[in-house]
Write a sequence for this structure.
């Protein structure tokens, strides 16, 4: 479904991704773990073309996408929905307009269809009665869920989550994690989740990949990761056991 | 010496980037025009926000000019020409410059902070992911909105400067408002008005380009937004002064070519 072939990304002198090769299987929930600055978010942004690799290839459904133009990338972005670290909602628009934003740009739906899709998407993230509010009038946790609804409304085949639970309290964190699992099963999407949360990864991921200094240091099912001898993975596991 | 060269390269880099950004906006305007409602929203927003401040600034610019000219002209007993001279000086030079400075602080800082915040909170990335073009969706409406509003506001400021001059002329020098206005057409010529309007337009374009560019390319979180705002204020003011000189110089050259004198 998604293939990274020897992906390299540099920012000036600094090389963030150092030859990442990885296959993401259709329908799986793949957690990408690693310490800060190891290139997890950069990897996701390369998939949707917000960043372009300096070397290597990215294949999505049999198409090499790393050299596509901004225009050619539109169908890929329709296929890959991204949920950002920040809610990234547009302050000047209502929640309804925020969720409808992508639907209006990607499709030619009637207002009735848009309205029904917005309600359905907000329902999936358990939000009702907030359509006419502005982002500043709802809590941060709710904003994160609206952000998720905005992405889900486009019914993408691939969902990319960039640290979806950062800045949330434990209860909302659990709710969002549960939501990721439910959405992946309900919508049958492939999900890539960038996170620091090993506990959550062990409970909902189908596979986990651990990055260190721009390289894959461990890849496997939660059970395999639990038994990994890689020092960084052991550090993560130690934190879970604490 | 090395520092001077580095500084010069940095300035060239800044100017080049601003030109590239301006070209990108014009390309978007020609090939992917934005919705009119977005531009109207910006015009409304910018005009309402800055209407009172600009009117007040314009009034006082005119008043300042009247004070300065009163001192000189009293000596020559030519106070009757106060309106003409003060208005001419305001229209040709001081008015557009000072009002543009004021607008750069207000509109420029606001726009770069707004766009910078959108950048660091990933709203601009989200726009791209949701199938829209940020240049078309957020930059072009602001660019056009700022130019149209700033041009209108600068013009409003200049009109208000006449009232400011008239007011001060009456109370300070005892010049009758009717007499103040009577000599304006005798001193202000077509080229004077044209120079003022060209300057207003040029300053508006400079302001719109710099503040949208600085905001759009903000990096580095809250500090980055702060840096973008400061950089917008400084760069805009320098660019306005440079453009003021350039338009004055080109205006003189053009006038010389047309009149042959």
């Amino acid at each position: 479904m998604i293939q990274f072939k020897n992906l390299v990304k540099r920012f000036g002198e600094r090389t963030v991704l150092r030859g990442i090769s990885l296959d993401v299987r259709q329908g799986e929930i793949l957690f990408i773990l690693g310490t800060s600055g190891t290139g997890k978010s950069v990897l996701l942004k390369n998939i949707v073309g917000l960043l372009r690799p300096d070397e290597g290839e990215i294949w999505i459904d049999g198409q090499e996408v790393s050299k596509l133009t901004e225009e050619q990338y539109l169908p890929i972005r329709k296929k890959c929905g991204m949920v950002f670290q920040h809610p990234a909602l547009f302050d000047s628009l209502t929640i309804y307009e925020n969720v409808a934003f992508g639907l209006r740009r990607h499709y030619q739906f009637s207002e009735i269809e848009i309205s029904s899709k917005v309600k359905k998407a907000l329902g999936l993230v358990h939000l009702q009665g907030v359509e006419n509010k502005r982002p500043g009038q709802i809590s941060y946790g709710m904003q994160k869920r609206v952000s998720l609804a905005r992405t889900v409304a486009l019914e993408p085949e691939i969902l990319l989550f960039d640290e979806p639970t950062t800045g949330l309290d434990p209860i909302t964190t659990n709710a969002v994690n549960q939501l990721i699992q439910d959405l992946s099963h309900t919508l049958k999407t492939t999900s890539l989740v960038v996170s620091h949360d090993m506990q959550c990864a062990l409970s909902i991921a189908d596979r986990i990949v651990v990055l260190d200094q721009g390289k894959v240091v461990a890849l496997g099912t939660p059970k395999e990761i639990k038994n990994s001898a890689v020092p960084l993975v052991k550090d993560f596991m130690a934190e879970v056991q604490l | 010496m090395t520092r001077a060269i580095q500084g010069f390269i940095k300035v060239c880099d800044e100017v080049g980037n601003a030109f590239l950004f301006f070209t990108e906006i014009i390309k978007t305007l020609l090939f992917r025009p934005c919705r009119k409602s977005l531009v109207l929203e910006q015009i409304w927003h910018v005009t309402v926000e800055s209407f009172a401040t600009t009117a007040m600034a314009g009034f006082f610019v005119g008043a300042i000019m009247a004070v300065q000219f009163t001192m000189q002209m009293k000596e020559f007993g030519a106070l009757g020409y106060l309106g003409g001279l003060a208005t001419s000086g305001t229209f040709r030079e001081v008015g557009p410059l000072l009002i543009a400075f004021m607008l750069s602080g207000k509109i420029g800082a606001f726009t770069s902070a707004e766009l910078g915040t959108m950048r660091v909170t990933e709203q601009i990335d989200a726009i791209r992911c949701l199938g829209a073009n940020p240049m078309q969706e957020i930059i072009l409406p602001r660019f056009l909105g700022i130019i149209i509003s700033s041009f209108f506001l600068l013009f409003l400021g200049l009109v208000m400067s006449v009232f400011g001059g008239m007011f001060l002329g009456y109370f300070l020098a005892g010049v009758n408002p009717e007499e103040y206005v009577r000599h304006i057409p005798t001193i202000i010529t077509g080229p004077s008005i044209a120079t003022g309007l060209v300057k207003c337009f040029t300053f508006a374009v400079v302001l719109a380009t710099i503040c949208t560019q600085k905001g759009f390319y903000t990096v580095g979180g809250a500090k980055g937004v702060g840096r973008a705002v400061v950089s917008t204020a400084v760069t805009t003011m320098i660019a306005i002064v440079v453009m003021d000189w350039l338009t004055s110089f080109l205006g003189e050259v053009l006038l010389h070519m047309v009149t042959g004198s």
